[in-house]
Specification:
133 residues; 4-stranded mixed beta sheet; 10 strands; elongated
Length: 133
Amino acid sequence: MTTFLKNIWSTLLQNINRLFTKPPVPLKTVKVEELPDILDPMCVYIVGESSYLWFVAMLCPCGCGAVLQMSVMPEKRPQWDITIHEDRTITLYPSVRRVIGCKSHFFLRRGMILWCKEKMSPTSSFQTPSLRG
């Protein structure tokens, strides 16, 4: 009987949580020729001129405030591949891994942050679009 009641309670709490939890929203993609002085934490910036892309920049999704810049220029190392999707979201390959500071490690897929296992929770209460695995 107790297991039955626990299952009912758990199901009830999950359904209530779904009612009040907003679904994650992808980061907005903004194409610029120069990186702004102040970055929006809900945006990812593609920096370049016309079809020449130099790098992708964003605030670290953990909330530490670090500005991350990932080169998309083929001759630079390290270098990320960028896919710009029809819905204007982007995907970067490979993952983004900070080796200093907060040590965040994540993928950016269709504008969504997918955390890698070694960095499961943000360092602050800042809420970023994410899917945690």
